[in-house]
Write a structure and sequence with these properties.
By secondary structure, this protein is of the alpha/beta class. It has a domain of 79 residues. 29% of the residues lie in helices and 23% in strands. It contains ten helices and twelve strands. Strands 6-7-8-3-9-10-12-11 form an eight-stranded mixed β-sheet, with helices on both faces. A hairpin with a 2-residue loop joins β9 and β10. α3 crosses α4, α4 crosses α6 and α6 runs parallel beside α7. It starts with 5 loop residues before the first strand and ends in a 13-residue tail after the last strand.
Length: 327
């Protein structure tokens, strides 16, 4: 097909609380093409997971999509539900791997039953065929003795194996897009590497598009084609992964990269970004990063819209200026 698989256009998501309305997403726009891996990075609370939940139709009370669009192959998903005919999209064409494999599986159901349930619902397979498919999927994600392990429960699997089970469920219906929300957060470094290698192999075999949500820039550098940087519920920079790492344009992106350790830059002192992100009950109208930015000035109090810059986009009137100096 030509054109993007997924388009997010000026998306706004609000959450009603006793203290007021939290503006969790404020005009997010993204797209992803077939076979592409898009990394979404940013600090905790920047809106990464809320973006994923909006794509999957998981924004529920007290949250709501208050503006914008999410389109799958040109078809709007906003306001739809599984009951309104979106079952063939969510769980089949678009699937998700959640953050914590320790809590994402039902402890009272066997692994085989949990995987089989997915293909029974979305593909209409018989119980016997669904069980056979579950064994195939476990083998595909590198779990030895797959047929024997179908009758085991989640507590009988290690953290890395549980994440492999989650990935098996995610690819069960051969989706076009896999949303992976911090898929390696609860795992040790060695297992993280194995899971990321597995995702890369599956992408090559199946032609998957992947949205990878993470705070780990090392993961993004090794797996992604493009990067979107989020701050305070907005996209502040996008671009090809090599360009973002070699010449980040936004001061926030520069700070993120300079605060990440790397073997090739061991002689450089890491910086920290002073201060905290703004509260989103009353978000600033101008650049949200201004209070923490070393090069911001009065002109940055005006709204900063994304505009083309190099091979990507950036929301900064001083894009490209060096904000952080080597210590």
């Amino acid at each position: 097909m030509s054109g993007p698989l997924l388009e997010i256009d000026d998306l706004h998501v609000d959450f009603d609380t006793r203290a007021g309305t939290v503006k969790a997403l404020r005009g997010v726009s993204l797209s992803i093409a077939p076979g592409e891996t898009l990394g979404i990075v940013g600090e905790s609370g920047s809106g990464k997971s809320v973006t994923a939940q909006a794509v999957m139709g998981l924004i529920d009370v007290p949250g709501r999509i208050s503006g914008g669009e999410v389109r799958w192959r040109g078809q709007s998903l906003v306001g739809r539900s599984v009951a309104k005919g979106a079952r063939d999209i969510w769980g089949k064409d678009i699937t998700m791997v959640f953050q914590n494999p320790m809590t994402s599986l039902n402890p009272l159901m066997t692994i085989g039953d949990q995987i089989a349930e997915v293909v029974e619902i979305h593909l209409g397979l018989s119980r016997k065929a669904a069980r056979a498919r579950a064994a195939e999927l476990l083998a595909a994600v590198g779990i030895a003795g797959a047929a024997r392990r179908l009758d085991q429960y989640p507590h009988e699997f290690s953290g890395g194996m549980r994440q492999r089970v989650m990935i098996a469920m995610g690819i069960a219906c051969e989706p076009k897009l896999l949303v992976a929300d911090e898929p390696t957060t609860a795992l040790d470094v060695t297992i993280q590497a194995q899971i990321l290698e597995l995702l890369a192999e599956l992408q090559e075999k199946m032609g998957l598009a992947i949205v990878l949500i993470t705070h780990d820039l090392g993961i993004v550098a090794g797996l992604c084609h493009r990067v979107a940087v989020m701050y305070a519920g907005q996209i502040v920079e996008t671009g090809p992964v090599d360009d973002i790492f070699e010449a980040p344009s936004h001061p926030y992106t520069q700070g993120l990269i300079r605060s990440t350790p790397g073997l090739e830059a061991a002689e450089k002192r890491l910086i920290s970004i002073e201060g905290m992100p703004p509260g989103l009950l009353h978000p600033p109208s101008g650049c949200a990063f201004l209070p923490r930015c070393p090069i911001g000035d009065e002109g940055c109090r005006a709204p900063q819209a994304l505009h083309p810059f190099g091979a990507g986009t950036v929301a900064c009137r001083k894009a490209g200026e060096q904000a952080w100096r080597d210590a």
